[in-house]
Amino acid sequence: MSTSAVVTERSPVAYARKRLRQGLRGLDPVRAGAHLDRSALELLSPAQRARFLEMPAFDQQHLCRVANHLREQGITDRDVILAGLLHDIGKFDGVRAVRLTDRVGKVVLKRISPATLQNVASSYPRGRFPGLALTVRHPELGAEIARSLGCSERTCWLIRNHEAETDLGDPDLARLQAADFAS
Ligand SMILES: [Fe+2]
Ligand SMILES: [Fe+2]
Questions:
Q1: Nearest listed ligand to the Cα of residue 135
Q2: What separation in Å is there between the alpha carbon of 63 and the centre of ligand 2?
Q3: Which ligand approaches the C-alpha of residue 91 most closely?
Q4: 35 CA to middle of ligand 1, Å?
Q5: Closest by Cα among 96, 79, 99 to 146
Q6: What is the reported pLDDT for 30?
Q7: What is the pTM of this model?
Q8: How far is CA 168 from CA 10, 53, 58, 78, 171, in A?
Q9: 47 Cα to the center of ligand 1, angstroms
């Protein structure tokens, strides 16, 4: 897939629709994960795996789908697969996790009041809406978590930038964004 096609697919409306669909899938995590291939987890170190398994079931399934999608595209670079498997690790900070209402809130606020959304994000970890803040800040927080878990700088960079508006001219980031969007 060309990088320009990736950017087009991630237009704001298509992106919002896709995120909502992904969120609704999380309402029935047992059904959604019934036949999911979780073999990519073998790539994780014990510490990375332990942190991964603390994530809500919906997020674990999405992360496996993204890693599987990358592998199905023929990608074998461990740094990229690990980025796929951990790119949303920042949606759980060890205490609080992003919930469906936070996902919906982000989509709505981004359209009607981006400044409010930014204020909520800035107040983390003290604010009243930590889950909503995590939806906004999970790329940077996830990169820090990944670094603390021994991930390479390349994997951390991919995680930090996985929700950038463009692929930043990086083919691996384009592949990760496309896999994230498709999964
Ligand atoms: Fe994300
Ligand atoms: Fe994701």
A1: 1
A2: 7
A3: 1
A4: 23
A5: 79
A6: 67
A7: 0.84
A8: 14, 31, 28, 20, 9
A9: 21
How much is the CA Rg of the chain, to the nearest whole Å? Answer: 15
For residue 159, give the ligand nearest its CA.
1
| pLDDT at residue 137 tops 90 | yes
* pLDDT at residue 29, rounded to an integer: 65
C-alpha pair distances (Å), 151 with each of 2, 45, 73, 143: 27, 9, 22, 9
Please state the rounded mean pLDDT for residues 48-53.
97
Instruction: State which amino acid sits at residue 162.
Output: H
- What tokens appear for 99 in the block? 């919930």
Residue-range domain boundaries for the chain: 3-182
Pairwise CA distance, residues 153 & 94, whole Å: 22
Segment 2-22, tens digit of pLDDT: 444 444 456 667 767 776 677
